[in-house]
Amino acid sequence: MDYFSDDAVRSQLRTKTVRGAAITGITQIIRIGIGLATIPLLARLLQPEDFGLFAIVAVITNFALIFVDAGLSMATIQRESINRTQVSNLFWTTAAIGLALTAIVSATGPVLGWLYAEPRLAWLVAVTALTYIFAGLTIQHQALLRRCMLFNRIAVIEVLSLLAGQVAAIVWAFNHTGQANDYWALALIPLVSSGTRMLGVWSACRWIPQWPARDPQSRQMLHFGGNLTVGQACNYLSSNVDQLAVGYVFGDASLGNYERSTTLALQPIRQINGPLTSVCVPALSRLIDQPEKYFHAFRTAVVLVGLLIVPFASLCIVEADKLVPLIMGPGWNDAINIFRLLAVSLLTLPICNASAWLLISQGRGAETLKVQAVDAVLKIGLVGCGIPFGVLGVAAATPIRSLVMPAYLFGVIGRSGPVRSRAIWKLCLVQMLAVATTTTMLLAIRWCSVNSEPSAIVVSALAAGLTSTAIFLAFRFVRTGIADIVRSLPLAHATAS
């Protein structure tokens, strides 16, 4: 396949987008299923202190991982046309960055150990930093697959790499449970996953990079990627400053409860948003000169995310006291209220994440950076205000930020481009109405029910799904969008013929 042909990218765009969304949805269901299966296993084999220890490492190492990509994967995906020289230059750039960051981050391990008075952090950081080498050699191959919308290949790679990392962690934890080195199970997850992903991507994309060469367009791509990178760094800081604060002020045990609550409440939307971004950004980038189709594609994607997240959000808010012990086992009662607070942020978080697609697909890198910088300042300020009120005060920063930030974000987006602020607000209000109605329904069921067993969650989950779906379908544009998706599915074409 010619990964650099513009015709190959634009042909059958609608069908590729719908098929990619379907594949992504199935993939994420599998990924979430793997996560929900392994979270309780690891929670039973390891202690909260182990998760707290690795959470400190993960905040630092995941932050540095942003700079390996340097926004250059999105520069390849978003650009209208590319050539082999440009992508080769970007490949060698990310490879060099990955190698340099491995050395730099490894050197910070002893400093982190001294700061937290925990010498084990030094070796954990050094081992986890090896993932940067694998990532640097993977980014451009994966970007080419996404640009050409070869999502079936990406899906297989993502599932296998996730499974490999989780299996390695469980095997280690099972063989070393209760021992002083059991925490290494958590370090194996990113290391094994990134290595497996690199091998899988190389097998799926047989492109071989050229040696670096001069190209004036490469500089523009680096500039666009630079804006995205700094913006992503701000976003990462705002997303993790609460964990850093909890770990530093309240200790490993509190951080373990906080980190597990964050994973359980927010990981589903994160696992949906990441791969869906890889579907929607290339599709929207190809539709930028067709405003009506552009907005229709964006609106349909937002509705699909809402249909998945709204029932989950309502269920987490109402049934947190049942979900946490059921999934994580005994000993995690301190995580219940943290989990419930974080779930409130799902009121607006999905549509805020989706709105970022508009800025990126329109090439508005500077505005993306500005929005994410404001978001970071807001979150840091809220976390600082919450520290005197304990761990729950810090947790409250996330839902407050998610309710305040849309006003600024939607205003920036509406200044230019095919989508107006009013249209985004309409989508946001529909989703908030669905959450409010579904939550009210679940509270009524809980109040009337005499069954306090965890099995009652099944009834609540079904009620949440049916109620939220009914609210969404009450709007004509939702029904129209779903009908268009159904007509674009391969099965529908086969039936029609």
TrEMBL record:
Annotated signal peptide: none
Xref: InterPro entries: Poly_Biosynth_Transport
Cell location: Cell membrane
Gene Ontology CC: one annotated term: plasma membrane
Keywords carried by this UniProt record: Cell membrane, Membrane, Transmembrane, Transmembrane helix
Membrane-spanning residues: 21-45, 51-77, 89-115, 121-139, 151-174, 294-318, 338-360, 380-404, 424-445, 457-478
Membrane topology listed for this record: Multi-pass membrane protein
Pfam families in the record: Polysacc_synt_3 (PF13440)
Keyword Membrane assigned: yes
Assigned protein family: Belongs to the polysaccharide synthase family.
Protein name: Lipopolysaccharide biosynthesis protein WzxC
Source species of the chain: Rubripirellula lacrimiformis
